[in-house]
Please model this.
Amino acid sequence: MSEVCSQNCSECDSDCADRKPADFSAPVNASSNVKSVIGVVSGKGGVGKTLVTSLLAVAMRRAGYASAVLDADITGPSVPRAFGLREKAVGSETGIIPVTTKTGIPVMSINLLLDKETDPIIWRGPVIAGTVKQFWSDVHWGNVDYMFVDMPPGTGDVPLTVFQSLPLDGVVVVASPQELVGMIVEKAVNMAGMMNIPVLALVENMSYFQCPDCGREHRIFGESHIGAIAEKHGIGTVCKLPIDPKLAAATDAGAVEDYEGDYMDGLVKMLEKRRDGAK
Model:
């Protein structure tokens, strides 16, 4: 260590033995207690990441836990639409108050701050990343057992910010059956590995369509590759979501909390097991 060391490694280019790694972690809001943070990621867009985030929050709420959703997809926010939220978030002495869904799930999204939900967000990466950190630090979340973070697709600024700034317990990777997407989803899995964040589960959306007349399952987008990816990376939990017109209709109508389905049960049990193991 230099005799004139300022103890601020971020302003020093010396490669000394006492150099500390950069710390990008952001503090949670002082009036909040968030016990577990789970990121929901995908290698590309259009695979149902927001749907999975919403279903997970609903499933954990039904299981008796306090769940919350942080919508980190700043330029493509759609979580409020899935829950039918029209109310705007407001400020208070303790921070921004998130909007609560009808079953008690607090949600924070940029669309809850805009005059019109169709107003575009035309910001550069650093501003978007800073907004995500503000949603963590400046929002009064209260007591939360499980927070699910809906990330934008890919491996860019915002996913990197979430990986580095929020205390992630792990990520859930969402994919669709196409082989190309299988290749792309491995990028998301590998990014998590490089950031030392465990991949808790893989969710394959649009996995199949079950005929309402004969009950047969049809693989419209081809055979699944998610099992092979999970085995390759040692991921123990895999969930498959079918193409279900009722689920699509409920989400479009802002009624995702009304949909009855057990597709997330495996993930719920896995999260509960991890929780029990941590006690």
Notes: The mean pLDDT is 89. The longest helix spans residues 179-194. The radius of gyration is 20 Å. DSSP finds eight helices and twelve strands in the chain.
